Amino acid sequence: MWRSLMLNNPKARELLLGAAGQVNQKVREQIEAFVSSEIAKATAPLRARIAELEERIAALEGGRVAPRPQGSSRSDLDPGRF
Question: What is the mean pLDDT of the chain?
Answer without folding.
Answer: 82
